[in-house]
Write a structure and sequence with these properties.
The structure is a homodimer.
Chain A lengths: L1 H12 L2 H7 L9 E7 L3 E6 L4 H8 L17 E6 L2 E2 L8 H5 L2 E3 L4 E2 L3 E4 L14 H7 L13 E7 L11 H12 L6 E2 L1 H13 L3 E7 L6 E7 L7 E7 L3 E8 L5 E8 L9 H7 L5 H24 L6 E8 L1 H7 L5 H4 L13 E2 H4 L8 E4 L9 H8 L11 E6 L2 E7 L4 E7 L20 E7 L5 E5 L7 E2 L1 H13 L18 E4 L2 E7 L10 E4 H24 L10 E4 H5 L3 H6 L11 E5 L1 H11 L1 H13 E4 L5 H9 L15 H6 L1
Helix pairs in contact in A: 13-18, 13-19, 15-20, 18-19
């Protein structure tokens, strides 16, 4: 990744001297300077003297400024990685942060080329990298198969020299040898292979290596090289999330994961959730832009992975991609608008195997792209792939529940004979988006775990042990539970001001519960949670619970009949199950029935990459799912309303909490 | 055809005035002028004052100049279509020709932009345009089927509006409707169709028109449009000859031929026969150039046909191409060198269906290209297609012979159970190339038919009734027969000078037989034939006869056992059978057994275009052919040597000529 290397160099060359000298320059407004923003790697030329916030607005990057650019809210915090700039102290920016290179975009004028990081989008630290040990431990725990039997194979052939009595065409001789090793009656050969076939055979005295695919309806020769080149055969497992993209470079000959890389989805600048992206796509040229952004994101990851693994892009022949229905439509530049409009129709669910060159992915020129089959407008290939990576389907007759919770939540109930699924809009409250000001993704500086002690002291654990920057989803779940059971809020989420007066504080956005004081926080700003934000968290948890109870009722089941609950997605990954039940997010059943899956969508994509059987199984799973569109079910709204309490209107649904609730 | 239209305008603006004025200009050598050569449509900028021959040399166009540019041989005759030029009278150029706009390239200096025609390559006049009447009369006379059942179909569908209870994806709803009309379990859909599917369905309220293909291993949707567009469904039948290309635009819905257009193969400038082209391809960049030239030739013909038919290129979805093995390799940019080198191996014989966009053909973006299957290095798809258009295979158990004679000759003997084939090098003697100075293609001005009367007078018929420019193949066969049986040459082809002294004349290239005096000739030059040229003609006829007798002996048959002989290709088309037998080119059997086929390669390509069954039959025919490589058969050389007499060493092989021969 050349850009990132450059970045490292420039960071070191920046110093305080530069910042002070910059102020002395004259005629700065006549010059143009280049601003580059990370992690989006987007650049723009601006007039000297303009603010960084103006550039951010022009590029439509996701950076809030609640106060409208007065320097009071501190929302537009940025970190300057390289370059000279005018920094201005303000109530919302401590000297400590200025010294660390932070600034407020609205208060910072451009006086040189700058490299700027949007701290909200600092490098991800994704924990779930699947290694061989992980797979060993999961071998019996999934619906798919852990096997190295990919739809692409490399086969070495020694073609005999042609003679006058055996002067079949080059292709025919190749096919004949291939058929000795691989039984098939008809073999297709790509045109690009035909163009080099005669020379490759002769330059290598017939000792050739054939890349052979079973992805198309006929077995197909994708490539021919000399055996001596000892060329690699690699594939990609890619999980395209609305927020993040994770890519694994996999050796298709032994199934080993060579690299795991990840980044934000560059589409973030066009909207934070799928509905915002679909709306964005409606203007001319925007659908093209969204596709380009996602392709660019993936190509950057490919470049990073192959540089690190020291292989070539032409060694990559297959990508197995999982993503939600909107992400897949945007990847393929398919009109997404009808996903959003009743009756919620996608263009396609079973995506045919595509050519990587048709999408612009930097792989072998004959590279193939497989997308995990979609189910409906709001249940996508991430769920199909996810189910492949869980034991829900295939290993048991007992009924289990799969929940993939992020900005959208998808739920599947079923067993190997039937599957019923629905999707609900959880919203970004637990996802670290701007709805909750103290919210943040589960990255360095996030409170991931929290407890309010009897004496009112708050204990918490911060990712990477920094001073806290905010709370990620699991921290917010803990906070909500502790606030309720500690008596700081009532069942409606309203503050009980009598409980501990010094914890409540008036803020710009209303009365807030003080989680941590500015002095102890990374950004030197108080961390607090307002009633309005609590209401948002309750709506989010209610969406999940009511979707679950709706599905169960539809099936005539109750939650205790669930054999297992599998939690997938970033939200589920670090969740305190007990607290999730205590706030009424998850049903109150035996805690031993809950299982964390991590990124099951990525694992499913990996399983498909490595096995024809898994690829077929994914289709079977998608076919089997009965998809309920909650948008059109009035009964769901009733369930949702009933769940807008802590833990629920009907506390009999939470028998294990009875003691705690009775005390209240 | 924009270029040709321009040309017409400029021709009319040229007049004698221009020519005279041109000489007066000064400083002409300091200017650059543009020369454009037809029919190759190639241009070059040259310095004023240089000769046209120099430009011809630079462009490597096929124009001879035996005298080395002295203006004496008259070989480099050209016609100036537009522009000013200095014309110089010479012994080799009459005033009559100057007045018609002719000039000698070596004697003509450039003093303005010029448009030049190489007369040797004047517009073709191809006679065999197949019309429906032709097909009716041929219905029972071919191996294939006359049926309109093409592998591409247009199907109108009325998709019901999606509802919340029927909200399958757009593609699934389309497939469901399609399956009601067309029974199949899996249907593929091209990516380009997916990208527009959602909008096309909604813009047309579900009333759509689907173009559907059975060419790939799965039924495939190639296009979707609104029914109201009333879009056409067209295909191309293309015969790519070494010298000429013929293209038919065919309505795939009713099988009607909408246009027939033809042109020279622009590759001609790179060599006249396949070996010359293969040699040319060996230099870097030359293979690419040869492909570009052939694609350009075809694209020019497509443009001409669709302009005339008033359709759009995107309405053309399929091309059925037949050509010899070298032409197909060059079309596909496949290395042709191993066709030429022992053991004569092609890259491919069964060409997969390709995408027109991969070749650069201007058709629908999802257009498909089918090439008639090849048999071996020197028996190509023109023969497979040709056999489809003859009754040889499929209708009879009796054994027949098929001969496609051009620069190369291909022979097939067989019936519906077996086929044996070989190719021989006839050379361009009968093809109007430079080997025979009086030779020319069967175009306007060619003597196509000739008789020497008892009094020594020569009677002949000229195509289009002009003064003769030369003799085409059938004229040369007649001449050779008449010279031999008239006693002007002996069995070795040597002149009998005693016969008619005034007919023999010393020429630049040796003693020649005077066919017509300059005064009566179009080019105002004597038409004559030398002993050396006669020897070339004898070698050519011997090649055909010996290939035939070799095959027959290989099969243990004699010529009288042949039920029929089918003659295809330009050479066979106007041939006087009696004279062809009299010179020993064809075997001496019942004349009623001979049948002219015309351009059977084109007819075969048309049959394949319109019928899946014919496409499969062509593969079956190619598979069935046993290919004998004559290059490696010493017995063939013996047969060839024995045939180097008129009519043959063994005159017992020609019983019907016994009377005539005894007289001699």
């Amino acid at each position: 990744m050349k850009i990132i290397n450059n970045l490292n160099c420039r960071v070191h060359s920046t110093n305080v001297q530069d910042k002070k000298m910059a102020g002395a320059k004259t005629n700065i407004t006549e010059k143009k300077f280049k601003l580059t923003f990370f992690p989006f790697k987007m650049s723009i030329d601006v007039q000297g003297g303009s603010t960084i916030l103006e550039a951010v607005r022009q590029l439509q990057l996701p950076l809030k400024a609640s106060c409208g650019g007065k320097g009071s809210c501190g929302d537009c915090l940025i970190k300057i990685l390289a370059g000279n700039y005018k920094v201005k102290a303000s109530a919302a920016l401590s000297q400590e942060l200025i010294d660390k290179g932070y600034a407020l975009a609205c208060q910072t004028k451009v006086t040189s080329d700058l490299t700027v990081q949007l701290p909200q989008f600092e490098e991800l630290s994704i924990k779930t990298v699947h290694d061989s040990q992980f797979f060993e431990s999961h071998r019996e725990k999934i619906s798919g198969q852990f096997e190295v039997n990919p739809p692409l194979k490399k086969i070495n052939l020694n073609l005999p020299q042609p003679t006058i009595d055996d002067n079949y065409s080059d292709l025919r001789r190749l096919q004949r040898e291939l058929q000795k090793k691989y039984v098939c009656t008809r073999i297709k050969c790509e045109y690009s292979v035909l163009k080099k076939l005669a020379q490759i055979i002769r330059q290598n005295q017939g000792k050739i290596s054939v890349v052979f695919s079973n992805l198309d309806s006929l077995p197909t020769i994708l490539d021919v090289r000399g055996q001596e080149e000892n060329q690699g055969l690699y594939g990609l497992a890619i999980d395209i999330g609305t927020t993040t993209i994770v890519l694994q470079l996999v050796n298709l000959e032994n199934g080993k994961i060579s690299e795991t890389v990840f980044s934000y989805n560059q589409q973030l600048k066009c909207g934070e959730d799928v509905i915002a992206r679909i709306n964005y796509a409606q203007k001319p040229g925007h659908l093209e832009e969204l596709q380009e952004l996602i392709i660019q994101s993936i190509n950057n990851l490919i470049a990073k992975a192959i540089t690190s693994a020291r292989i070539l892009a032409k060694d990559i022949y297959l990508a197995s991609i999982s993503g939600n229905t909107t992400m897949i439509h945007l990847l393929l530049k398919l009109e997404p608008n009808y996903i959003r409009l009743a009756p919620y129709v996608s263009t396609i669910n079973q995506v045919p195997v595509l050519l990587s060159r048709d999408l612009g992915l930097k792989m072998n020129e004959e590279g193939r792209v497989h997308c995990s089959p979609l189910v409906g407008s709001y249940v996508g290939g991430d769920i199909t792939a996810g189910l492949l990576a869980t034991p829900l389907y295939g290993h048991s007759q007992k009924v289990s529940l799969f929940i993939d919770a992020g900005t959208n939540g998808e739920l599947v109930i079923g067993n190997k004979d039937w599957l019923m699924t629905c999707a609900c809009s959880i919203g970004p409250a637990f996802e670290g988006s701007g709805i909750i000001r103290c919210g943040m993704p589960a990255t360095a500086g996030a409170i991931e775990n929290l407890k309010i002690k009897a004496d009112g002291q708050i204990e918490y654990r911060v990712i990477n042990g920094l001073k806290p920057k905010g709370l990620c989803g699991s921290g917010l779940v803990d906070l909500l539970a502790e606030l309720f059971y500690g008596g700081y809020i009532d069942r409606h989420g309203k503050f009980n001001l009598k409980k501990d007066k010094k914890r409540f504080k008036e803020t710009e956005t209303g009365l807030g519960f003080l989680i941590e004081k500015a002095d102890n926080c990374y950004w030197a700003k108080d961390l607090f949670l307002t009633e309005n934000e609590i209401s948002n968290l309750i709506r989010s948890k209610a969406a999940v619970y009511s979707a679950c109870s709706f599905l169960l009722k539809k099936l005539g089941l109750n939650s205790t009949q669930l054999e297992n609950i599998y939690l997938a997605g970033g939200f589920g990954q670090y969740l305190n199950i007990e607290n999730a039940i205590r706030i009424g997010l998850l049903p109150d059943i035996d805690r031993n029935k809950f299982h964390y899956l991590g990124n099951s969508s990525l694992l499913g994509a990996y399983l498909i990459l490595l096995s024809n059987n898994n690829m077929q199984l994914a289709e079977e799973i998608a076919d089997k799912m009965t998809y309920i569109e909650l948008n059109t079910e009035p009964q769901y709204m009733d369930e949702f309303m009933a769940a807008l309490f802590l833990p629920h209107t009907d506390i009999d649904l939470f028998p294990s909490l009875k003691g705690e609730l009775d005390v209240k």
